[in-house]
UniProtKB/TrEMBL annotation:
<keyword id="KW-0813">Transport</keyword>
<comment type="similarity">
    <text>Belongs to the TatB family.</text>
</comment>
<dbReference type="Pfam" id="PF02416">
    <property type="entry name" value="TatA_B_E"/>
</dbReference>
<feature type="region of interest" description="Disordered">
    <location>
        <begin position="144"/>
        <end position="169"/>
    </location>
</feature>
<keyword id="KW-1003">Cell membrane</keyword>
<keyword id="KW-0472">Membrane</keyword>
<keyword id="KW-1133">Transmembrane helix</keyword>
<comment type="subunit">
    <text>The Tat system comprises two distinct complexes: a TatABC complex, containing multiple copies of TatA, TatB and TatC subunits, and a separate TatA complex, containing only TatA subunits. Substrates initially bind to the TatABC complex, which probably triggers association of the separate TatA complex to form the active translocon.</text>
</comment>
<keyword id="KW-0653">Protein transport</keyword>
<protein>
    <recommendedName>
        <fullName>Sec-independent protein translocase protein TatB</fullName>
    </recommendedName>
</protein>
<keyword id="KW-0812">Transmembrane</keyword>
<keyword id="KW-0997">Cell inner membrane</keyword>
<comment type="function">
    <text>Part of the twin-arginine translocation (Tat) system that transports large folded proteins containing a characteristic twin-arginine motif in their signal peptide across membranes. Together with TatC, TatB is part of a receptor directly interacting with Tat signal peptides. TatB may form an oligomeric binding site that transiently accommodates folded Tat precursor proteins before their translocation.</text>
</comment>
<keyword id="KW-0811">Translocation</keyword>
<dbReference type="InterPro" id="IPR018448">
    <property type="entry name" value="TatB"/>
</dbReference>
<dbReference type="InterPro" id="IPR003369">
    <property type="entry name" value="TatA/B/E"/>
</dbReference>
Length: 169
């Protein structure tokens, strides 16, 4: 912005006093001050808008870089997964061809039939427990020793229980 020194401001004030006059000078100074304030706020708003647009562009660039990096990682993971699946498929084919007896491998019982090696897996049966009952994490004896309440009690019953003996009726 334009740099004004004290001597230049004094010269402008003296010329304004002569040209405008002492009666109208305070009103003109207030008007000039408000106009300068509005101009400064407008310039600050424009700067802020430019900064926001620059930051938005930077964020969009970072977003695109992050998305491209994520796509690269995804493709590399997919390729590694497909290679692992192919290797697993080869191993399982080799093992199943050996189990079928194609290679003449003898089994434990001495027969080379294609019978299954293991019994079928039994179906899952849920244990006979009442799952709706809440199980306590602390043992009951520990709660009693440390003074933890295990039963709900109304406020009036609690007051009556802990009332000093001299005041009980």
């Amino acid at each position: 912005m334009i740099d004004f020194g004290f001597d230049k401001i004094a010269l402008i004030g003296a010329v304004a006093l002569i040209v405008i006059g002492p009666e109208k000078l305070p009103r003109v100074a207030r008007t000039v001050g408000t106009l300068l304030g509005k101009a400064r706020r407008y310039v600050a708003d424009v700067k802020a808008e430019v900064n926001r647009s620059i930051e938005l562009e930077e964020l969009q660039k970072m977003k695109s870089q992050f998305e491209s990096a994520a796509r690269d990682v995804e493709t590399s993971v997919q390729s590694e997964l497909s290679a692992a699946n192919a290797a697993f498929g080869d191993v399982t084919r080799d093992l199943t061809s050996g189990i079928d007896g194609a290679d003449g491998i003898a089994f434990d019982d001495g027969s080379s039939s294609g019978a299954p090696l293991a019994a079928p897996v039994p179906q899952y049966k849920r244990p006979d427990k009442n799952w709706r009952l809440k199980r306590s994490a602390l043992p009951h004896w520990y709660k009693q020793r440390s003074g933890v309440r295990t039963h709900a009690q109304s406020g009036a019953a609690r007051v009556a229980r802990f009332r000093p003996p001299a005041l009980k009726k």
